[in-house]
Design brief:
The complex is a heterodimer of chains A (296) and B (224). Chain A has a single domain (44-291), classed as P-loop containing nucleotide triphosphate hydrolases (Rossmann fold, 3-Layer(aba) Sandwich), CATH 3.40.50. Helices cover 31% and strands 23% of the residues of chain A. Chain A has ten helices and ten strands. In chain A, helix 3 (146-156) packs parallel to helix 6 and helix 6 (195-208) runs parallel beside helix 7. The radius of gyration of chain B is 19 Å and the shape is elongated. Classes of the chains: A alpha/beta (296), B mainly alpha (224).
Chain lengths: 296, 224
């Protein structure tokens, strides 16, 4: 197994030469004053992300304002809120995808299992290998086959062992609940699949490099109810092995799939807690108004 | 396609069936306590009532949780409303059984009851009504459920007859008033248990057919 792919430290001075020693853990900044939205402290080893006073700016516009929260490992956390509330921006910050937008900058910290994602020398590419992402619109590479789509991440990392690749291909497609549907035509174009299948192909592609965490930005918004149900079943199955953070406009989906839910509004984290509590007995009146459809 | 959360519906059904079983046990034991003059059974009935109360709270919580997190429609949302109503009916029936057991204990203090009038027959009918209502839920049999409310008139008639006979007896033998007043209340409790069974059966019809048959000709009580 190529050790470049799994559990790689964030810092890579030379992409071709993996660093074997781990990045020193930066001392954490003093915790901000506790806010009602901050989660109850969880032992460090159970936290996937420790987000500390995070603010994100696009130029002069502040899209995310002073967010502090812990995202637990091995579970599904959903982020809900109206359009423009900063939820996708916050999600993208978890694997530094927001940096691809010109003019983006942030303050505050995000620690992933104790390591600062934005520490000096941390390679964003390595971050994005460990924290995979699935987007709203499925985006299989149009010139690649189904198999090539799944294995593109591994091949770009220099993996050539055919036995290993075939094994990883089947494992990833099985994890994405797609293997039985495509196993007999892996050489067909990825774009030839249905919308729901394409999205599961993208999930398989993300899983092939064995990330530790999977981010999903409205993964079902373009899918029909049956395809949506299949992706939700997949999310439920994945959480035993992965931490999943999902942004969704569909509150009912957030209620179905997640253990914890964060409600964002106008860049701020308004309330964060167990999904049951957010939907059955929210503490904040704004949360109550949003989840009950009284917003606006 | 079975979703990963559908087992919650199965758990809810199991809890409702368990609650039905406990309520039937409670009514049966309370009648045994009364007719066999065995006050030791009253303690068992009271313990069963605690379990029935816990199940009521559990089932309500399960239903609210499922409605909130799973957004059920069609049969599933009817199951939620039926479960919440049925567990309330069963809890009330359990309370009536407890009341019978406590009155049986008091009756024992007055000495052996010389005549129960229609009470044994009412006990049999009330138990049969409860069993049939729960069986119709388990077997998903709307026709069986519809028979339950149609038999309720017999229980009502027996209760009215008890009232006449017991009040006559009190008039003629005032020294029996304490005991016979207890019997009047017990008769009323049995009539209420049969009413709860009727309500449950009507809910089962709604669950299975989506039709609300309450207060309709379809369930008009007729003497058998």
């Amino acid at each position: 197994m190529n050790s470049v792919i799994t559990n790689q430290p964030f810092v890579m001075s030379d992409p071709a030469k993996p660093v074997t020693e781990s990045v020193p853990v930066h001392p954490t900044a003093p915790a901000p004053s506790p806010s009602p939205a901050a989660a109850t402290p969880v032992p460090q080893q159970e936290i996937a992300f420790d987000i500390q006073d995070l603010s994100i700016f696009y130029g002069s516009h502040q899209a995310v304002k002073n967010v502090t929260m812990h995202i637990p490992s091995g579970s599904v956390t959903s982020i809900i809120g109206p359009s423009g509330c900063g939820k996708s921006t916050a999600l993208r910050a978890l694997n530094r995808m927001h940096e691809l937008t010109p003019g983006a900058r942030h303050t505050g910290k995000i620690l992933m299992k104790g390591q600062d994602l934005y520490g000096p020398g941390v390679d964003a590419t390595v971050v994005r290998r460990r924290v995979g992402m699935v987007f709203q619109k499925s985006n299989p590479f149009p010139t690649l086959t189904i198999a090539e789509n799944v294995l593109v991440g591994l091949r770009l990392n220099g993996v050539r062992d055919k036995t290993f690749l075939n094994k990883r291909l089947e494992e990833s497609l099985r994890m994405a609940a797609l293997w039985d549907e495509v196993k007999d035509h892996l050489n067909r174009p990825g774009t030839g699949l249905s919308g729901g299948q394409q999205q599961r192909l993208c999930i398989a592609r993300a899983l092939a490099v064995r990330p530790e965490i999977l981010l999903m930005d409205e993964p079902c918004s373009a899918l029909d109810p049956i395809a949506t149900a299949k992706v939700e079943e997949l999310i439920h199955a994945l959480k035993s092995q992965y931490t999943v953070v999902i942004v969704t406009h569909n509150m009912q989906q957030a209620a179905r799939v997640s253990e914890k839910t964060a409600f964002f509004y106008m860049g701020k984290l308004i309330e964060y807690g167990p999904t049951e509590q957010i939907f059955m007995n929210p503490k904040d009146p704004q949360t109550e108004a949003y989840v009950s459809g009284r917003f606006g | 396609m079975k979703r990963y959360f559908h087992h919650e519906l199965e758990d809810l059904r199991k809890h409702l069936i368990l609650m039905g079983e406990r309520t039937i046990d409670s009514v049966r034991l309370s009648m045994q306590s009364l007719l066999a003059d065995d006050v030791s059974m009253a303690g068992q009935v009271i313990a069963l009532d605690d379990e029935i109360d816990r199940l009521e709270v559990l089932i309500d919580a399960e239903c609210v949780r499922y409605i909130t997190l799973r957004q059920p429609v069609a049969h599933d949302v009817r199951l939620m409303t039926v479960a919440m109503k049925t567990n309330h009916e069963l809890e009330r029936a359990g309370d009536e059984a407890t009341s019978i057991a406590k009155r049986a204990r008091r009756l024992a203090e007055f000495g052996k009851v010389d005549e129960f009038f229609n009470i044994p027959r009412m006990g049999d009918l009330a138990l049969e009504q409860l069993r049939d209502a729960m069986d119709s839920f388990i077997a998903e049999d709307a026709n069986k459920a519809l028979l339950v409310p149609r038999r309720d008139k017999e229980v009502d008639d027996l209760n009215r007859d008890n009232y006449v006979k017991l009040t006559d007896k009190i008039s003629g033998h005032p020294e029996t008033s304490h005991a016979n007043i207890e019997l009047i209340f017990i008769s009323k409790s049995l009539e209420r248990i049969a009413d709860h069974a009727t309500n449950i059966a009507e809910e089962v019809v709604y669950l299975l057919k989506g039709e609300d048959v309450r207060h309709t000709q379809e369930v008009r009580r007729t003497a058998m």
